[in-house]
Amino acid sequence: MNPNKRSSETEGHQFLGRALAMEQKVLAQQLELSKHSITHNGRMGEVNEQLFIDVLRRYLPRRYGVEQGIVIDSKGSTSDQIDIVIYDPQYTPPLLKQMSHRYILAEAVYGVLEVKPALNRDYLIYAANKAESVRKLERTSVPIPHAGGVYDAKPLFPIIAGIVGIRSKWNDGLDSRHFHQTINQLLGDQTLTLGLAMADRAFERSYATFDKTMTHDALKFSPAENSLAWFLFTLLKRLQDLGTCPAVDWLRYRDVLAPEAN
């Protein structure tokens, strides 16, 4: 019998954990290679972003698109440049796509992530500001006709936002009081839903932070091992909770082309 097959039958949890840990190890090695072999910081950042994009594309269902981009709304307002946008590619395709540049409609966005070398106070605030630049955009939602009638317009959901990096910069990692002080200050549109310091741990925040409140159980952390897998499964559950994105009011976008006719 194949030893892996035997292991899966006799110690399934450990087998699964080891298999997922190898994915994390491979990604960590690729990120370390980038750190020690690329001499231009901008290019290093692009490579690291692509590495995380590739992982997400492997693990997220095909219904989700994963790209770099700028988010745009029906008023023509735009977000900052976003390292990773998770969006609906089926009903709301990107606009004005040119090579690696694209505008993604605000209604299509499920989540946004920033990719940084490490997690520290400045990068947490930076990622929170990026999240806010997306969440403050206007999103439309219209009723959806179907064979039996019309579905009501879908309520707008809170967009997922997070940060991913190789490690944390605090000596005591995500146990640091400085991490907790910073993350507890980022509320409302600046909420970071989840994060990953791969060599340390991953974290998740409760939905309550969108209401500008923090409870004692607002933060959850992954085990020290398999932080990447824990992060991915948490992201998948959060995406699952959101359901489908709202139906775009395409006439709002059309009307921008001839505002004098309104």
Overall helicity: 25-40%
Low-pLDDT stretches are 4-12, 213-217
The profile of the biggest β sheet is: 9 strands, mixed
User: What sequence of helices (H) and strands (E) makes up the elements?
Assistant: HHHEEEEEEHEEEEHEEEHH
Describe this entry's structure for a reader:
- The protein is α/β, with parallel strands linked by helices and 262 residues long.
- Helix content is 38%, strand content 23%.
- It contains 7 helices and 13 strands.
- The protein has helices at residues 3-10, 12-37, 41-59, 121-135, 177-185, 227-242, 250-255, and strands at 65-72, 78-87, 95-98, 101-105, 109-115, 118-119, 144-146, 149-151, 160-165, 167-168, 194-197, 202-205, 219-221.
- Strands 3-4-1-2-5-9-11-12-13 form a 9-stranded mixed sheet, sandwiched between helices. It has a two-stranded parallel ribbon with strand order 6-10.
- A hairpin with a 2-residue loop joins strand 3 (95-98) and strand 4.
- Helix 1 (3-10) crosses helix 2 and helix 2 (12-37) runs antiparallel to helix 3.
- The radius of gyration is 20 Å and the shape is globular.
- The termini are far apart.
- 34% of the residues are buried.
Q: Key terms for this structure?
A:
single chain; 13 strands; two-stranded parallel ribbon; alpha/beta
